[in-house]
Amino acid sequence: MMRFLYSAAVWLAQPLVRRKLRRRAAAEPLYGEHIAERFGHYTQPAPAPGEGPCVWLHAVSLGETLAAATLVTALRQQLPGMRLLLTHGTATGRAAGARLLQPGDVQVWQPWDTMGAVRRFLAHFQPQIGLLMETELWPNLVAESARAGVPLCLVNARLSEKTLRRSRRWGALARDTYAGLHAAWAQGEADAQRLRQLGAPVRGVMGNFKFDMAPNATQLAQGRAWRTASARPVLMFASAREGEEAMLIEVLKRNRPLAPVDSAQEAPEIIADGVQWLVVPRHPQRFDEVAALFTAAGYTVARRSQWGADCPVAADVWLGDSLGEMALYFGLAHAALLGGSFAPLGGQNLIEAAACGVPVFMGPHTYNFAEPAQLAAQAEAAFVCADLADAVDRGTALLQQPHRLETAQQAALGLGAAHRGAAQRTAQALVTVLAKKRP
User: Fold this and answer.
1) Considering only CA atoms, which of 399, 377, 395 is closest in space to residue 387?
2) In the chain, where are the structural domains located?
3) Catalytic residue list contains 64
4) What distance in Å separates the CA atoms of residue 42 and residue 34, rounded to the nearest whole number?
């Protein structure tokens, strides 16, 4: 009964979905392309027949897609001739996913979770196995995959305490969805325990794919070269979320209020303690908004989109307003504040920062990435702060202590090295699933 009511609701919501896509397309045109795919209608054929199986991998957004790259590489090594069917929910995910494709592979949007759209998707592409990255469960997607005989697996799986509580409110619908999976492999033991509470068939704890990700070496080298050339140590606000930039402005103004500026003179330095700030918003649709926010507060802003190939120009705030260049930004930073952790948003993943040797100061809200945050804190590659003001104070202080900074940077690099191998372990488990499925 619950799935029937849910299915009716998502079917009725389709006009709202189309309207939302049109609005998003105004800022990100990719949302306006191939809309029919969202509802199970396709113009492109299924992946070309080959020696290996058709593996369907769903990575909803940019972070999941980048992490999925490590699994795709491992699967191609263990399944020669594999054909990849790649689905996404966001424009940033789809743009990044295009780089994972090889001849014979196919990339489409995730079907909206009506029974009809999901059935058309499965009938058209006929994958031999389905892999969902991290958290992306939809009731009809799970139920219809089981009905079609497609083993659907949750890989790199994580489940926060907050999501567990929210899922329990859905009662039988959530339990049936998690129990309907063929298998789940968790990032950490705490994730595994929470998944089991919802009925998921957890087959093991594999670790986090993101520890297997190697930062772009060219970007990292360029960022470090610019960091060396910077007149001031660079403190980055990484993946800042809505509301957090305004919090930062308030903290900076308390540390050093703006002085009146004579228009005939240069503006005084207004960033506290000689720190060069680099702010990288999490969502690209907010780039203009964030630039305007700092400008209205009296700060000079230099946007990455205007730097070109040269060293960033002098400004109070450097704004990272580009996609796919996080390694460049982390290379440029001596240390970073973790976005999403100072407002109650659950935090962002700090593993990429660690891989680039950047220690992180994080707020109290890291429930979406509790395991990596705990591991980083234990290794002293990350530091838990009471609030954003505390993080600014402690981050600024670390930049003024070269020996402590170097120790923290080395701890960050060591964190990544100590936890690699999750993608290979998961690929081996998936090969076993496919072997049992084949006649």
Assistant:
1) 395
2) 23-207+421-437, 217-418
3) yes
4) 8
Give the span between the Cα atoms of 252 and 262, in whole angstroms. Answer: 21
Same fold for the domain at 23-207+421-437 and the one at 217-418?
yes
- Residue 185, classified by CB atoms within 10 Å of its CB into exposed (0-12), middle (13-18) or buried (19+), is buried
Rounded Cα gap, residues 32 and 170, in angstroms: 32
| Amino acid code (one letter) for 236 | M
Give the whole-angstrom CA distance, residue 350 versus residue 337. 10
CATH of the domain spanning 23-207+421-437:
3.40.50.11720
What order do you get walking across the sheet with 276-281 strand by strand? 301-303, 317-319, 276-281, 234-240, 335-338, 360-362, 382-384
Q: Which two tokens stand for residue 156?
A: 């790199």
Q: Which fold has domain 217-418?
A: Rossmann fold (3.40.50)
Annotated active-site residue in 37, 64, 325, 371: 64
Distances (CA, A) of 330 to 2, 213, 309: 46, 14, 17
pLDDT tens-place values along the chain, 439 residues long? 688 899 999 999 999 999 999 999 998 899 999 999 999 999 988 877 777 899 999 999 988 999 999 999 999 999 999 999 999 999 999 999 999 999 999 999 999 999 999 999 999 999 999 999 998 899 999 999 999 999 999 999 999 888 999 999 888 999 999 999 999 999 999 999 999 999 999 999 999 998 998 899 999 999 999 999 888 999 999 999 999 999 999 999 887 654 433 333 344 444 445 899 999 999 888 999 999 999 999 999 999 998 877 778 889 999 999 988 999 999 999 999 999 999 999 989 899 999 999 999 999 999 888 888 999 999 999 999 999 999 999 999 999 999 999 999 999 999 988 889 999 999 999 999 998 866 5
The values of phi and psi at residue 259, to 5°, are -95, 155
From the list 169, 123, 206, the residue with the least C-alpha distance to 422 is 206
Q: Closest Cα to residue 149, out of 132, 127, 120, 164?
A: 127
